[in-house]
Give the backbone structure.
Amino acid sequence: MTAPHATPVRTRQVRVVSDVSLLPDVTFGPRSTPWWGTISFMVTEGMTLVICAFAYLYLRKNFYHYPPLGTPLPSLGVPTAGLALMLVSLVPMWFAGRYARRLDLNGTRIALLVALVVKFGIVVLRWYAFEALNTRWNTDAYGSAAWIVMGFHTTLLILDLAEDAGFAIILWSGRARAATFSDVVDDVVYWYFTVISWIPLFVLLFLYPRWN
């Protein structure tokens, strides 16, 4: 019995283009693709805040007094406390970014947990800050503009709080990867934007009416 002829196997030659084995497992800043996504979010949301602020100022020309007569000036107590707490929150977030860059799991865990507690307090104070405007969103154009400005910025606070909670779960569950630390650093940059953007809005909503 004659054995069938074996079909020759063709081997494919592979040419090595470059060796990537020495590249780092994680990158930070502009070398990281998610970092550019974070910057894009900041630009988009920053422009939205600017538009809201200009709408608030544009409506000013419709009133001789701003706030309109009969509308109390915004209260300063709770909003000022909220702003102070936001500035305090920069400290644990700075440490979170510092530890994340070092891939220090325990340090990142603790710093992010402290920041999470502080941010929760900020969101609670922001809830009461709406009452401190001393006007409702449906009272008049002034009230609608003020609520829109603060309302949109409040969505940034809530989303960042939810994101931090997600990071905390990942870090404390032991499922953190090297890329998670890069994401934490991007979140720190985003929080800087959230806090800094609120300072002129705080002046616009709570101090500017006192200058009219």
